């Protein structure tokens, strides 16, 4: 075979050009369609999300009712109002944070952390939710997790953040209190025998 014959590659007369174009179209069309479908879905997800400024007004009203009930000391009514606010609009970060605060007041720190995480799922840089999380973790005694969340706050805080310093002091005070109330460690895990 001479160059340019047989496989259709390198045809000088142009007969392979049309075949090459058809082959290229057949090769890349499925990938192009798949990529177009993915881009369409990704862009439509961004369009369907609303910013916080577009929270359903009814949800905002329920948060205000919850705030009034909480100010009056009725934590159960406040809790119900905040949950209703989330049912109306699950993107209401204020309702998540308020539920976390109510749970902390009820000494339910684990539940409070879950609510704060709900707010952080909507906005990972929400300093109020991060602060509530650190406080609940300290109250729960999970100091390592509290320090980790505080570190995240320090990273996000670009200016002077008094709240970060206050939370750092809270963590250290709790660590000192835990160390003072901890039973003394037994060396090598051996118990000493009592003498008669």
Task: Pick out its properties.
70% helix; mainly alpha; 196 residues; flat; Serine Threonine Protein Phosphatase 5, Tetratricopeptide repeat
Query: How large is the radius of gyration?
Result: 30 Å
Corresponding CATH superfamily of the domain at 55-181: Tetratricopeptide repeat domain
Query: Which overall shape is indicated by the principal axes computed on the Cα atoms?
Result: flat
Helix content: over 70%
Largest sheet: none
**Low-confidence stretches at least 5 residues in length (pLDDT < 50)?**
44-48
Give the total of beta strands.
Answer: 0
Query: What proportion of the residues form beta strands (DSSP E)?
Result: under 5%
Order of helices and strands: HHHHHHHH
Indicate the mean pLDDT.
79
CATH class term of the domain at 55-181: Mainly Alpha
The separation of the N and C termini measures: 107 Å
Structural category is mainly alpha
Number of helices: 8
Examine the secondary-structure arrangement and name the CATH architecture of the domain at 55-181: Alpha Horseshoe
CATH topology of the domain at 55-181: Serine Threonine Protein Phosphatase 5, Tetratricopeptide repeat
Describe this structure in words.
By secondary structure, the chain is mainly α. The protein has a domain at 55-181: Tetratricopeptide repeat domain (Serine Threonine Protein Phosphatase 5, Tetratricopeptide repeat, Alpha Horseshoe). It has eight helices and no strands. The longest helix has 34 residues, at 15-48. It starts with 14 loop residues before the first helix and ends in a 15-residue tail after the last helix. Residues 44-48 have low confidence and may be disordered.
